[in-house]
Amino acid sequence: MKSQDIRKKFLEFFESKQHKIVPSASMVLKDDPTLMFVNAGMVPFKEYFLGQRKIVNTRVTDSQKCLRVSGKHNDLEEVGIDTYHHTLFEMLGNWSFGDYFKQEAIAWAWELLTEVYKIDKDILYVTIFEGDESEGLAKDTEAYDMWKDYIAEDRILLGNKKDNFWEMGAQGPCGPCSEIHVDIRSAEEKAKTPGADLVNMDHPQVVEIWNLVFMQFNRKADGSLENLPNQHIDTGMGFERLCMVLQGVQSNYDTDVFTPLIHELESKTGVVYGKSEEIDIALRVISDHVRAVAFAIADGQLPSSTGAGYVIRRILRRAIRYGFTFLNQKEAFIYQLVEVLSHQMGAYFPEITAQKRLVKNVIKEEEASFLRTLGQGLGLLDNVIEATKGKEVSGEKAFELYDTFGFPIDLTALILSEKGYSLNESEFDAALQKQKNRSRAAAEMDMDDWVILKEDDEEEFVGYDYLETQVKITRYRKVTSKKDGELYQLVFNLTPFYPEGGGQVGDRGFLEASNGDVLHIIDTKKENNLIMHIAKDLPKHVTDSFKAVVDAKNRALSNNNHSATHLLHQALRAVLGTHVEQKGSLVNAKYLRFDFSHFSKVTPEQIDEIEEFVNARIREKLELQEFRNIPMQQAIEKGAMALFGEKYGDTVRMIQFGNSKELCGGTHVDNTDAIWYFKISGEGAVAAGVRRIEAITGKVAMDFFLKQDKELVAVKSSLKNAKDPVKAIVSLQDENSALKKEIETLLKEKAKNVKGSLKASIQNIDGINFLSTRIDMNAGAIKDIAHELGGEIDNLFFFAGAENEGKATLTSYIAKNLVEEKGYDAGKIVRELGRLIQGGGGGQKFFATAGGKNPEGLSEAIEKVKEYL
Ligand code: ATP
Ligand code: MG
Fold first, then answer.
1. Which of 254, 582, 640, 774 could form a disulfide with 635 if both were Cys (CB 3.0 to 4.6 A apart)?
2. What are the subcellular locations of this protein (predicted)?
3. Whole-model pTM?
């Protein structure tokens, strides 16, 4: 069965059990402070488990893109080395939100595997949770008894907390789980070792394919467990592993999910898969990593030097390094796989095809720049080796290469061993640990449990219509971090405060108690669908009713910038073309920033055109048309720009100004008139194929123009109120350069004249052409004169004293033949006579200078030189 059909069968099976099929959510998490990437199928549904969002569909099924490269689930180092862990993989899931529980989950999993996919029962094993005394948790006999109906009891194995108690993170929903494993070894091997002994033992052909999680607890901050209000089912089946089983192969890389990529790599690099372990690992690493990187970029996470972007950059670099070392690839090549990937996965994940050009460009650029780094690093490593005494290279030096140049440590170790050197690894590890500790200490955050004051299923946001409402606090908690100290997060029953999201910053404002006490809200954020108001303190009486008031001025400025962002997006597509897609956005009270795909610099003419396009729509006074809670399909029919990779609920909000129609949860002006004016303040590159525009609007634009106006007035007045200041400045500049030229000519003439009169005063003393004199010019000019005279006159003994800008200098020039014949030394002369001008100097025997701070001594020095003859 082809992988496409395997996925389809899964979804259709659960659809036949009344599940709603939903598309994969974006793998990149933009508004979740606890996680960078979706690392399990349950992540997009977290808020349902936490009871923080109203459940619309109680049964859902999907295939979710997951990435396990950081945090609690990190498989990166295994990937490519083994044959069944990937960075990016698809997790097939069926979900019950407070609907069915263990019984159905187990029955349907069994039915699907054995009756639909027709997997031989004799290769299956299941595990159940054995219980854990320290947690006070009993063995999951319920699941055990249910499994007994389907599978022989010697195939039901007990598992400990590590394998059979699933937790999302340090806190949050969790529960016992039951895993399904396959044993796809040959009959011969099975005869040698029973499969039951190999379950959960990291055997590449005895692997877990499906995990059924029975979500029923919540892990609190103090580590204790409490029951969740509802019981849920969360299952996750590794799609690539399932394909391995159903396609009768022994490795995920031999399924049609990977073979097209591997074949492409073989033909591009001329190697063959399956001949050498080193090359095979490289091929697996690259074919795996390109998927992760390509989908991350398509989902909006570009490689960068910090945070989630850095994680993506490191994955790509790992692939480049394997290509560099084991496939001898010294030029960018991985980007070429994007074509195959799009061909193969585009049907189910259209984002990869829609973003193909951008993805390719970004990967190619990253490859080229890392290959340059590798080249530089090799050079630096050579220096390090040269400076190394003995045969062991310092781990600290290797860390420096790793930290500042991104030079991978395993490559360093490899090159060293090829050259007969070793690396002090413990030194390296210590340096790395030290750095990690530093950044951990800076980022550490302690979160107390929520204090629940009032049960509430969903906090209603009323901030589109109101900036003030009466509210009650439903829960709060204290959060302590090094960075911000102690802060409180407050949740209300309803709120006018807009939480940071969709690029727009969170509202600030205040809470007013009935007795007039005021508590400032310094920011508003959203986590798992809870709107959290951030304050430095708690109100005195938390159970009071409060007036919640948004800072209206600040909000109005953000509104301007958010609506202007939509108009800018429209303008970019009109002026530059419809390839323009939003790649990032920031909206606050001061300015807006918009990143978009485009492959060349935006020219000044295009900037003008874009500004005019937006300003024309501001002048048109377009009314805001807001469509709140309309079905996604309807919004798309109305012409809303559908963004891939965005996670939308069943209904969406569409914002329209004239022909600009976008799905958006942000706050906006009622009429574009309010924006007043739109001015682009910057344009530049963010990455290959991604440009950034910054712009200002409204009052900020007005202040900008006023400031410019003031400056212009000042410029004009200093130009004696010239009618055309630009013309006046250009003519001043012309005049200035003409004057400069004139001065240069004059100076040259002067030097010529000086030289002429100097020549005339040369005395011949015993065959030596002697001149000691005062010339008040700068040292450079005197040096030139001395050398010129020396070239024209034989046997020259020249000495000059000069005063220039209050300082004294002495210059001594003696023809080289005199130095040799008579033993004269210009250096000695200026050193000794330098004392007279309270200074010092030196140089060579035939030319030397001294500088000092006493011009009074010059005439004595000029006189005394004679004594050296
Ligand atoms: P394993 O022990 O094999 O690493 P796990 O216990 O980490 O698996 P779960 O967190 O239960 O796995 O995830 C559910 C399913 O997702 C697994 O049964 C497996 O089929 C699949 N899966 C997990 N991690 C990966 C990965 N890195 N690559 C591919 N599939 C994976
Ligand atoms: Mg794992």
1. 640
2. Cytoplasm
3. 0.74
